[in-house]
C-alpha cells in the first residue's frame, strides 16, 4: 500500500498510519500524516502544526542516524488526542541525556531534534539500547494525556500489506477500578473481516463492565450474521488479571524482564461455534505489563525476549512488537497495558 492510500485508509478506518522512513522524502510524508491526524482529532490552534513538527523531527533523526526506521501516527487508544511513535533497529543513542538537550547534535548519535520533541509534546517517552535501537512516543492532547482509570495503554493496529481495510480491532474501557480490554480478529481479510470487527466493538462498548464470559457470549450473538472472529477479553485489577478468549488471540504477562505467563483462547469462532466460555485468573506482580495481540504478531516473540523488550512502557512495547514481529500478510493488532 502506498503512503497516500495508507493515510486515506487510516482516516476512514481509524488505523495506525505506518510510514517507513527509508528516504528523505518520507520526512514530509510523516509530517503530513501527523498534521492530518491532528486535524481528524480536532486538536485546536497550532497543535496540528506542532504534530507535524514532532513527526518531522523524529523522521529526520531516523533518516540521519538509524537503520530500519518507521514512524507510526494514530489517535490515542483512549480519550482525545494523538500520538507519534518512532522505532528503529539501531544503533541506539550513546548519550541520551545530552541528546535530549535542545540543539544538541553529533554525527553517529540520534539527537538533533529530541529536545524540541520533548518540549513540544504533551507527554514524551523514550528508551534506547546500544545495538538494539531506539523507541520514542510523543503524545499531544489538549489538557494532559487522558487515561482509562489508573492504567497506561499502548496499541498499534495495522492492515495486511496491500489491504485497504483491517479485520483487527481493539478497545479499552475503565470499569470501576479495573481496566477491560478487547482485541478482535475478524476471520480472513478485507471489508467483511473489518465489518465483523466493528460489530464486535459495538457489542463490547454497550456494557464493558459485564463478566468476561457474558461479554464473549454477547459478541457471539452480535457476530452471527458476519463471517465471525477470534476475540480475547482481558480485565486487569491491581492484583490480578482475568482472561477469556476464543480463537487465536494471545495474551502474555511480563514482569521482571521476562514473561511470567502465556494465555491462548479456547478453540472456536465467535459468531459461529463457541464452547462454553471460561475465564482464567492470574495473580499480578507489581509492575506487570500485559500484552494482548492477534496472530498478525508472531507468537514466538515471547519465547526468549531480550531483557530490553519486557521492560518497555506500554506504548513503546506495542510499537516494538509491531515493528519487529509483525506478519505482513495478515492484519496485526497489539495492545499493552500497565498500572500507571
UniProtKB/TrEMBL annotation:
Residues 151-339 form the PPM-type phosphatase domain. Pfam families: HATPase_c_2, SpoIIE. It comes from the Bacteria. SUPFAM superfamilies: ATPase domain of HSP90 chaperone/DNA topoisomerase II/histidine kinase (SSF55874), PP2C-like (SSF81606). PANTHER family: PHOSPHOSERINE PHOSPHATASE RSBX (PTHR35801:SF1). This is PPM-type phosphatase domain-containing protein.
Amino acid at each position: 500500500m502506498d503512503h497516500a492510500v495508507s493515510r486515506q485508509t487510516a482516516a476512514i478506518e481509524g488505523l495506525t498510519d505506518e510510514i517507513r522512513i527509508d528516504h528523505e522524502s518520507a520526512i514530509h510524508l510523516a509530517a503530513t500524516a501527523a498534521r492530518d491526524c491532528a486535524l481528524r482529532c480536532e486538536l485546536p490552534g497550532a497543535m496540528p502544526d506542532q504534530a507535524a513538527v514532532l513527526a518531522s523531527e523524529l523522521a529526520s533523526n531516523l533518516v540521519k542516524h538509524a537503520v530500519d526506521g518507521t514512524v507510526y501516527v494514530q489517535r490515542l487508544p483512549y480519550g482525545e488526542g494523538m500520538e507519534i511513535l518512532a522505532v528503529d533497529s539501531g544503533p541506539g543513542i550513546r548519550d541520551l541525556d545530552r541528546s535530549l538537550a535542545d540543539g544538541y547534535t553529533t554525527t553517529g548519535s540520534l539527537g538533533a531534534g529530541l529536545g524540541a520533541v520533548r518540549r513540544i509534546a504533551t507527554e514524551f517517552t523514550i528508551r534506547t539500547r546500544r545495538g538494539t535501537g531506539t523507541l520514542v512516543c510523543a503524545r499531544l492532547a489538549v489538557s494532559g494525556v487522558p487515561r482509562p482509570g489508573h492504567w497506561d495503554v499502548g496499541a498499534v493496529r495495522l492492515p495486511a500489506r496491500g489491504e485497504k481495510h483491517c479485520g483487527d480491532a481493539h478497545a479499552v474501557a475503565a470499569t470501576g477500578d479495573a481496566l477491560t480490554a478487547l482485541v478482535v480478529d475478524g476471520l480472513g481479510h478485507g471489508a467483511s473481516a473489518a465489518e465483523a470487527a466493528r460489530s464486535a466493538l459495538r457489542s463490547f462498548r454497550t456494557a464493558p463492565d459485564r463478566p468476561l464470559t457474558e461479554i464473549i457470549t454477547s459478541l457471539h450473538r452480535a457476530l452471527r450474521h458476519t463471517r465471525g472472529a477470534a476475540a480475547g477479553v482481558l480485565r486487569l485489577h491491581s492484583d490480578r488479571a482475568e482472561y477469556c478468549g476464543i480463537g487465536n488471540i494471545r495474551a502474555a504477562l511480563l514482569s521482571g524482564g521476562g514473561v511470567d505467563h502465556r494465555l491462548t483462547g479456547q478453540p472456536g469462532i465467535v459468531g459461529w461455534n463457541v464452547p462454553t466460555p471460561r475465564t482464567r485468573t492470574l495473580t499480578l506482580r507489581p509492575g506487570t505489563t500485559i500484552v494482548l495481540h492477534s496472530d498478525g504478531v508472531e507468537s514466538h516473540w515471547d519465547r526468549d525476549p531480550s531483557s530490553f523488550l519486557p521492560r518497555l512502557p506500554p506504548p513503546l512495547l506495542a510499537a516494538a512488537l509491531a515493528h519487529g514481529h509483525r506478519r505482513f500478510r495478515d492484519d496485526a493488532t497489539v495492545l499493552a497495558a500497565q498500572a500507571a
